[in-house]
Specification:
The structure holds 2 protein chains of 2 kinds. By secondary structure, chain A is mostly helical. Helix content of chain A is about 75%, strand content about 0%. A two-stranded antiparallel sheet of chain A has the order 1-2. Chain B has one domain: ABC transporter involved in vitamin B12 uptake, BtuC (Orthogonal Bundle).
Amino acid sequence: MIARALRGLGLGGITGNPVAIAVVLVLMALLLAVPATHNDYLTLVFRQILMYAAMAYGWNLIGGYTGYVSFGNVTFFGLGAYCSGVLSTHGVDNLFADIALAVVVNAAFAVLMGIPVLRLRGPYFGIATLGIGVAVAEIVANFDALGGSSGLAVHQVDEAHFSIYYYAMWLVALVSILGTFVIARSKLGYAFVAIRENEDAAAALGISATRYKITAWALGAMMAGAAGAIFAPANGFIDPSITFATDSNVFPIVMTILGGIGTVAGPFIGALLLAGVNELLQRYFVNAHTLFFGSMIVLVVLLLPRGLVWLFGLRGGVRGWLRSVAAYRA
Amino acid sequence: MELWAQDLVNGILAGGILALVAVGFSLVWGIMNIINLAHGAFVMLGAYVTYELFTALHLDPFLSLPISFIALFVLGYAIQRWLINWVVRAPILTTFLLTFGLSLLIVNIAQIIWTGDRRGVETWYAGANFSLGAVTVPWVKLLTLIAALAITGILQLWLTRSKTGRAIRATSMDIGAAQLAGVRVSQIYAIVFGLGAGLAGVAGTLIALSSSISPTMGDPFLISAFAVCVLGGLGSVQGALIGGLTYGIIQQTVAARLEVTIGTQQISGSGLEDAIAFIVLLLVLIVRPTGILGRATA
């Protein structure tokens, strides 16, 4: 029934529009060729895009599918980065170990935090997650074993093998996309959407809301944590202001909403567009790049209130679009 | 003992201004279900209005309070009327994103006009303070607190007594019923958003009195406004006041004397003000999931 309701909105079922997903997979295949064919600068830009994409997918599971808006997902990214940092200071220098540790630590942290915090609803959940983020960042900044506010150097591979970080990030992004697809189509995905649409009704149907909410939150934490675990050695240096940056907190949310919230294709499309445009603007309009960035967000929200993916499923041409835009007026 | 008293006074003085920042944010959130991420930018604009009036016309910051309220009210009204009202019925994240974009725009324009330099409003009474026993109270901060209390008091009176105020509260209770009773919802929304922006502007003016200003000064105030209005419960004036004072006092008293030992390392509370305030907030939320003065349903 949920699937039919979503299709009725032109959203193409629980995974979103299938054409959009196909486009995303083709783009991902093309991105695999970037390090071999482009210079270091572009490889870095695309690695950042893939990183933001993984974080956006992490946020999409809890914020998009389950409808619990988290303002603290950067915490998972930061914890992932610090897992790599700690391993590196203890002489362990293996990307797989980094990712494995980050995924385990983040899942455990998310479950632990989720038990009290996911009892809260709506904005109260949002503010609690924001609080976790601020608290973890400040504690790390005051903790000498983690380098405090001056940060940690993280061991890197030599320059000839540097593209390993790109491929690792690509893989994490791909797993996040495919994972979201599989999760959305499984019993989990339908439980998430049921909770989003009406938590009390879902509970009455026998869906254990708390358990599913914690699952969504922890799965998303793993995605962001894995991205952080690769970011740390790729960047070579981490400190609280880099790993817990406000941008890394807000960007994935904005990207998901821009691309299409609660869809499989949306976060990637949003990440590609937003991180790409941001980079271009920063390069060519240093003084006013935020101005363009801000105006673009305002225009997209006003003209495409359901995100870009929704354009793929748009029916009725310009009139259908106008009707949809007008639907949210006061 | 004197230290405790001094911290308590500092907390109350800081809390008054936090409450004033939060009250506009809370009204907009509680009545329209809009999380206004541009609220910090409005605070910043209020501070610059005061700065310009002070440097160009030597107008005392306290006299520029109404001007900064009116300027920001007009801006907020226009933004709601011609931008946000287009998507106000969309899910909360849509307006969240829209105000995020607006905030980027406003801060960037401010950076182009005033550059990123820190500036200050230096009044002749800026450094003056008086002693109350062992407690030192800066005059500016005391006057700021009084102004903040007076403004929230007037606001509460206006919301409960005036016709427009009643229409605003009716709209927040039941949009459909309010419309049936002849309330023009789009108009009310624009007034509420203008009011929120105007209150942010007034707070900005008061903040400029005691600290330096820059285009990005609004961010920390946005985050504390978040916390304060959740602590007090959404959409309520008294809630914001109680939340602000609680937040200020916790920050000043707990952070100043906390020492945690983890392993061999001592961590002092002085770098952890925000973390401590947020941990307290978390604990409050776990016990009372809708804030201290919150309603039964979120």
